[in-house]
């Protein structure tokens, strides 16, 4: 903040001011719901996953096997070239042990989350 | 870039940043805008265009937030645009203002960034669940803290960085914020305090993270002709850059933000900067988490990959160091009302270059500064280079 400015606007409230009704508020909970189509690529991925298999799509131009699969290669911007099952083991790229639920409430038992590298070069797979 | 006009910043305004403010988003937008106009010695009628930056509508539950905030931002019967690129919005908003004026279409633009996160219950973090892929990601119960924990852990693993190397950033920034009159979380803390704070999603602990906040900021942008008429000390926007990476974030190596480098290179090229660490006198990289300051220093080419923790330990990034980083106190100290937080960084560089930063003023007559913000799913970079 500039030293030329001597006053800054803003009136801080405490959570209790809202809870105890010290300031007028209006509350609203939307009742809207959504149903999303899983799409072409992820639809097939989920169907295969139900059977216990992990399926990828491939791009012969850049040589990638892609999990999650997509119908287009975002690098080459062309359609992918086919489906391919990948092994059910990968390499853990990074992980976290989270004590937070989605709403930022605390979990007694933490959850383990990780990124697994499935995406490997087509050529390396042979 | 034939025909591009030079653009100056001639005024800045900022409200207090607090966990919860009584003012509405419109009222906050008005307060910041009015302060910026007064600082520039201008009136709303002098503003030919208005750009508003504000982040997810879900915080407010108002799904036409740009329109909702318009009259608070002085946009009544003016050309008006709302921009939104996640956490990158606060620095992207003046970039959008820049092209309004640089194009020659307007001689002035009022740039406003607002965020009011406190309206969302039980916690604004829950609104972030609606940013994830609805099929693959949301059912897992994701939150931003743990996806950033994944990135932080990858960065630490790749370079062999320890938690205490990262905690120093939080200590520095919260300390710097003690001198910022708008700050929410200025504090004198130690590395041990950070390491002993609550584990949220390992390796992220409570004091590694910035708070949720309410607040607003504003800037006055004018063409060179107008700037020369109204002020002796304009600050010029000499470089702009922005870039997005794939939303398929699990397919990217998170140890390095390539998209930030891409945005920085674009801004440096425009500003004629060949050696960033030598030519940048002061920088405000985006620091919603302490590791992000380090990650972004590297992406901005202010040091080599993996070297930012070393510079921090050596004191290079302190206010009186060779390359002061986040002299404002950053998001960790001043607070993180998303879009307003990024704009706060641009305000800080503006005040630093004008020598108006008071107790936060860095020594050595700074001439060139940089601010950067980061957003979406660890995929967006926005960069601005200012000179006087």
Question: What features would you highlight for this structure?
Answer:
heterodimer; A: two-stranded antiparallel sheet; 16% helix; disordered C terminus; B: 388 residues; Peroxisomal Thiolase, Chain A, domain 1; nine-stranded mixed β-sheet; two-stranded antiparallel sheet; 34% helix
Distance between the termini of chain A: 60 Å
Largest sheet entry of chain B: 9 strands, mixed
CATH topology (fold) name of chain B: Peroxisomal Thiolase, Chain A, domain 1
Low-confidence stretches of chain A: 122-126
Count of helical regions of chain A: 3
CATH class of chain B: Alpha Beta
In short:
The complex is a heterodimer of chains A (126) and B (388). With 126 residues, chain A is of the alpha+beta class.
Can you put this structure into words, describing what you see?
The complex is a heterodimer of chains A (126) and B (388). Chain A has 126 residues and is α+β, with helices and mostly antiparallel strands. Chain A is elongated and about 65 Å long. Chain A has one domain. Helix content of chain A is 16%, strand content 32%. Chain A has helices at residues 15-19, 40-50, 122-125; strands at residues 54-59, 64-66, 72-73, 78-79, 82-86, 91-100, 106-117. In chain B, a hairpin with a 1-residue loop joins strand 5 and strand 6 (204-205). In chain B, the strands form two sheets. In chain B, strands 3-2-4-7-1-8-11-10-9 form a nine-stranded mixed beta sheet. The mean pLDDT of chain B is 96. Chain B has helices at 25-40, 65-69, 89-102, 144-159, 163-176, 191-196, 224-230, 258-271, 276-279, 290-299, 308-313, 330-333, 338-354, and strands at 7-14, 50-53, 80-83, 108-116, 199-202, 204-205, 214-223, 235-244, 282-284, 368-375, 380-387. Chain B has one domain (7-121, 211-387): Thiolase/Chalcone synthase (Peroxisomal Thiolase, Chain A, domain 1, 3-Layer(aba) Sandwich), CATH 3.40.47. Chain B is built from 13 helices and eleven strands. With 388 residues, chain B is an alpha/beta fold. Chain B is globular and about 55 Å long. Classes of the chains: A alpha+beta (126), B alpha/beta (388). Chains A and B meet through helix 1, strand 6 and strand 7 of A and strand 1, helix 1, helix 4, strand 5 and helix 13 of B.
